[in-house]
User: Which sequence fits this backbone?
């Protein structure tokens, strides 16, 4: 975690006109309790020491910053990969799950719930619950339990109860709604470990603060090795936690371009994508926050589509919407087929199997003809995606 | 008794702005019901069809309903349990739109005050003022937005007041005293008191804290206090009235009846009649 917070720093509820707390009244005291707990915990040397020790000894941080040799050679410029795939459980998700689970213990909550799309957040949460001896329930869309089967097995092995959600498109949006309904019902003894920089305040700020370790580490190490900042920082964006985690350290570095890569699905000229930031349009409210949302004229949320379960979501984090509007970050979309091609190419080129989510960011980098130093958040590993990819690709 | 027009629902002819204040009309309903508490059935608009949902609403009125809470089908209803969620999903699949919902509101509001239950994104998507103009023209008296807590409500509250619509807030067993006082002070029409920690749905017994939450709600506000979530039987309705609730909201029980019965309007009407008997002072 960053060492920069002071008592004077509030937990943001709004990012420009985005964010807020659009949830049933029943949850309001729990949100206030969570915010208060975070304000206190981040000032508490004991809490910080416990989190930092677990990030080091349990998660394996800091993660490597790898200068991608053959990729850099291919592109004729320098590309660094921030290796969150080497974080324990195989993605950046553990950074947030560890912090929130420690907060839950601090609040005396013994039961943890979470939503998951690709399963990476579910696995991270189940892992932390095993570590800390907490009860764990994970909501996952039926479609995602199919396409991310290995992660379901991991969660169950870790002692979590995985509840398949059979509503709507049976993916991340419905899993999140089911988790929120569980929380409304069991709020008094349960903490909801939301997995991205989405949801009602204080979650977007809390999850960003817990993920900014990615950017803080990468920025310091890159400065040390190159004596300069990167020209661009690139990350995939579904809800947007790995992106905001790495962006956060560079927000003040105006010369560093920030690029968020959304799921283009079948193409953003079709309705089948997961790219609300790239497409633009009216803001909306989903899962407790106002942000960029895919919706129809009357405000019904429409289904997203992406080959990658972690990006298959019609909303995104409110701070991303504000960064887009201010021009501080820009957002682009990469299609399913380009992401699949990048998945294959990076695997052969670097000996790293990236998550399909991450492959979107890598596809964008592969398509850029120019640049100085690119820093890419390699948010997770792709073992979970093998069945899905091998089923779709030519031999 | 008005009858739903023969024309198609949702044809856009929603009429002119009602001159009477929605809050006043709701207050009248609470003052003149002659029962132990006002009976407030929830009807999901567009379920199973728009026409049938209007007939269900009118059957509720004939059976003794004092106020109708009209649910707007929504893609992501976070405060609702599986029965109402499923009904909303089916209504949307059947082509329900806000225009059609407001036609149902118009058909029912000729007889009793109608309060729309609508999630926040549908209020904001077309613009708050535009949405509320249409709502006012439909003859509805008020609006409940289950995911618009106190802190997010000022814009909608102000726009409702300008149009004579009552913005009905919710309080829950978890609501702190401080919040309760603030919410109670700005409640219009009535204060929707959630009986349990949870989503909508039938329960074997009322939440153990329901009497306490009714008492706390009543001490926080000048408007009537209606109890909802988890009330499905005449006995539970009577218990709620005995605990001091000025109104009793019954939702999931009726939506389930509409989902299961061959003749939904008649079947829902019969359930509402039994609930009204449960609230009869002569009982």
Assistant:
């Amino acid at each position: 975690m960053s060492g920069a917070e002071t008592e004077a720093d509030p937990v943001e509820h709004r990012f420009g006109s985005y964010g807020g707390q659009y949830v049933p009244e029943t949850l309001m005291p729990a949100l206030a309790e969570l915010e208060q707990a975070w304000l206190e915990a981040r000032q508490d040397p004991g809490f910080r020491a416990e989190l930092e020790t677990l990030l080091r000894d349990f998660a394996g941080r800091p993660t490597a910053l790898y200068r991608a040799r053959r990729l850099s050679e291919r592109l004729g410029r320098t590309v660094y990969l921030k290796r969150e795939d080497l974080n324990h459980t195989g993605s950046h998700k553990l950074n947030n799950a560890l912090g929130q689970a420690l907060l839950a213990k601090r609040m005396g909550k013994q039961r943890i719930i979470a939503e998951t799309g690709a399963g990476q957040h579910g696995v991270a949460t189940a892992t932390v619950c095993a570590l800390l001896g907490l009860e764990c329930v994970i909501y996952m869309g039926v479609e995602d339990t199919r396409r991310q089967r290995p992660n379901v097995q991991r969660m169950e092995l870790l002692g979590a109860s995985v509840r398949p959600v059979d509503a709507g498109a049976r993916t991340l949006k419905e899993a999140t709604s089911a988790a929120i309904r569980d929380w409304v019902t069991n709020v008094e003894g349960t903490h909801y470990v939301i997995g991205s920089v989405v949801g009602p305040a204080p979650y977007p700020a809390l999850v960003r603060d817990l993920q900014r370790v990615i950017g803080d580490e990468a920025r310091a190490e890159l400065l040390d090795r190159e004596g300069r900042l990167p020209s661009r920082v690139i990350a995939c964006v579904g809800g947007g936690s790995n992106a905001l985690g790495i962006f956060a350290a560079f927000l003040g570095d105006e010369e560093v371009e920030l690029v968020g890569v959304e799921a283009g699905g079948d193409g953003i000229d079709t309705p089948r994508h997961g790219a609300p930031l790239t497409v633009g349009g009216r803001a909306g409210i989903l899962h407790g926050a106002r942000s960029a949302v895919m919706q129809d004229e009357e405000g019904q949320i429409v289904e997203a589509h992406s080959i990658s379960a972690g990006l298959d979501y019609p909303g995104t984090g409110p701070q991303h919407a504000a960064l887009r509007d201010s021009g501080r970050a820009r957002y682009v979309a990469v299609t399913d087929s380009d992401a699949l091609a990048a998945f294959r190419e990076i695997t052969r080129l670097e000996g790293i199997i990236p998550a399909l989510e991450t492959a979107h960011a890598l596809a964008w980098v592969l398509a850029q003809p120019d640049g100085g130093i690119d820093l890419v958040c390699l948010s997770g590993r792709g073992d979970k995606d093998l069945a899905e990819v091998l089923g779709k690709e030519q031999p | 008794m008005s009858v739903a027009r023969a024309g198609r629902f949702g044809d856009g002819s929603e009429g002119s702005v009602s001159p009477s204040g929605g809050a006043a009309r709701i207050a009248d309903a609470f003052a003149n019901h002659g029962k132990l508490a006002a009976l407030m059935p929830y009807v999901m608009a567009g379920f199973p069809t728009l026409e049938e949902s209007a007939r269900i609403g009118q059957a509720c009125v004939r059976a003794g309903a004092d106020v109708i809470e009209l649910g707007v089908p929504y893609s992501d209803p976070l405060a609702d349990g599986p029965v109402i969620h499923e009904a909303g999903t089916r209504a949307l699949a059947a082509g329900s739109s806000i225009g059609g919902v407001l036609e149902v509101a118009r058909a029912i509001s000729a007889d009793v005050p109608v309060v729309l239950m609508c999630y926040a994104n549908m209020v904001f998507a077309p613009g708050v003022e535009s949405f509320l103009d249409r709502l006012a023209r439909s003859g509805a008296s008020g609006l409940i937005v289950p995911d618009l807590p106190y802190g997010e409500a000022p814009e909608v509250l102000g726009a409702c007041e300008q149009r004579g619509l009552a913005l009905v807030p919710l309080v829950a067993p978890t609501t702190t005293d401080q919040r309760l006082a603030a919410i109670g002070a700005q409640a219009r029409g009535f204060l929707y008191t959630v009986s349990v920690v949870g989503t909508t749905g039938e329960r074997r017994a009322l939440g153990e804290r329901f009497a306490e939450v009714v008492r706390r709600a009543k001490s926080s506000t000048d408007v009537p206090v209606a109890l909802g979530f988890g009330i499905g039987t005449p006995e539970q309705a009577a218990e709620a009235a005995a605990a001091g609730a000025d109104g009793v909201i019954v939702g999931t029980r009726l939506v389930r009846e509409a989902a299961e019965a061959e003749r939904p309007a008649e079947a829902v009407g019969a359930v509402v009649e039994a609930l009204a008997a449960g609230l009869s002072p002569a009982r």
